[in-house]
Amino acid sequence: xxxxxxxxxxxxxxxxxxxxxxxxxxxxxxxxxxxxxxxxxxxxxxxxxxxxxxxxxxxxxxxxxxxxxxxxxxxxxxxxxxxxxxxxxxxxxxxxxxxxxxxxxxxxxxxxxxxxxxxxxxxxxxxxxxxxxxxxxxxxxxxxxxxxxxxxxxxxxxxxxxxxxxxxxxxxxxxxxxxxxxxxxxxxxxxxxxxxxxxxxxxxxxxxxxxxx
Length: 213
What we know:
Layout: H1 2-15, H2 31-38, H3 61-69, H4 79-119, H5 129-133, H6 136-157, H7 166-202, H8 208-212
């Protein structure tokens, strides 16, 4: 049972393409101008992610079970079951952290600020956001849906004695290859060409290098 779960988790991790952070070359120009413009940009939370709090450090499946069931005590399982629950919790938490602390930062802070500079500040008018961030919106959408499905699957099956039935987790992971992995593959395959073309277009503008950094 646990070996089946391990195989499913390892396969999911192997398929997932991490958004890669690359250094950008260039000389910084007119930093103050860009900083002043960005001070006028406000980040709005467009949606509340009901599962986001579970990405906090120090929380575990015991906290999750108590929180979902609204109880003070959870029976302690045997050693083998503890290990299985730890693996499932780490899978769920890592997906939540990656979405909240990485993908949404890229979307709301970096992509959002570029859209603001283009539409409100008349800066980088020759840049197409889609060519800079590729299918970031798609990645955000599928990753949010995946986290929400994991959360729902865990929440609906949790009892005082049960956390994350293996068959439920394996079934949810089967969707990863068809719904999520292709989105990451598209982003990663386009990353180098997107960065190169964007850098060429922006290299002569006063604020481009600082923004890319």
